């Protein structure tokens, strides 16, 4: 007998839906991180209550509950070096820029970057006046200032 005649539903052969991937390493966040995560959880719970098919939203909610449970608040380094929870002003390729180094879930990719991002890794541990290599170029970054968030 053909499989087509034995199958109860088409759902049987669909790929399983896996959980959302959790970034590797510790879940470091700034002091504002737990409140941001709590706000996302509250918004998702409201969406689930109003949704016709809440299952995809439940998967996202499980991700945020995991992130809330594992969040570790990290303060800015006391010695004035760049690190998580700091705002760094620097010059790269002749252009002045400013970024805040934050946790994965707080990053927006433009002015707030995750501490594991390549640019953040190049900045962490530096202080005003330091030069750093970046993208294979020696002394590509000049640190202008570092301040806590």
From TrEMBL:
<feature type="domain" description="Transcription elongation factor GreA/GreB C-terminal">
    <location>
        <begin position="80"/>
        <end position="147"/>
    </location>
</feature>
<dbReference type="GO" id="GO:0032784">
    <property type="term" value="P:regulation of DNA-templated transcription elongation"/>
</dbReference>
<keyword id="KW-0648">Protein biosynthesis</keyword>
<dbReference type="InterPro" id="IPR001437">
    <property type="entry name" value="Tscrpt_elong_fac_GreA/B_C"/>
</dbReference>
<protein>
    <submittedName>
        <fullName>Transcription elongation factor, GreA/GreB family</fullName>
    </submittedName>
</protein>
<feature type="region of interest" description="Disordered">
    <location>
        <begin position="1"/>
        <end position="20"/>
    </location>
</feature>
<keyword id="KW-0251">Elongation factor</keyword>
<feature type="compositionally biased region" description="Basic and acidic residues">
    <location>
        <begin position="1"/>
        <end position="18"/>
    </location>
</feature>
<dbReference type="GO" id="GO:0003677">
    <property type="term" value="F:DNA binding"/>
</dbReference>
<dbReference type="InterPro" id="IPR036953">
    <property type="entry name" value="GreA/GreB_C_sf"/>
</dbReference>
<dbReference type="Pfam" id="PF01272">
    <property type="entry name" value="GreA_GreB"/>
</dbReference>
<dbReference type="GO" id="GO:0003746">
    <property type="term" value="F:translation elongation factor activity"/>
</dbReference>
């Amino acid at each position: 007998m053909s499989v087509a005649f034995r199958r109860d539903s088409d759902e049987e052969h669909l790929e399983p839906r896996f959980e959302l991937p959790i970034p590797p390493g510790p879940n470091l966040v700034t002091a504002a991180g737990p409140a941001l995560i709590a706000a996302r959880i509250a918004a998702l719970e409201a969406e689930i209550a109003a949704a016709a098919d809440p299952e995809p939203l439940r998967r996202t909610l499980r991700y945020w509950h995991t992130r809330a449970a594992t969040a570790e608040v990290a303060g800015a380094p006391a010695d004035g070096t760049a690190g998580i929870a700091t705002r760094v002003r620097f010059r790269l390729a002749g252009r002045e820029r400013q970024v805040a180094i934050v946790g994965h879930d707080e990053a927006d990719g433009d002015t707030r970057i995750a501490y594991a991002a390549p640019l953040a890794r190049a900045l962490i541990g530096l202080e005003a006046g330091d030069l750093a290599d970046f993208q294979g170029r020696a002394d590509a970054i000049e640190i202008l200032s570092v301040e806590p968030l």
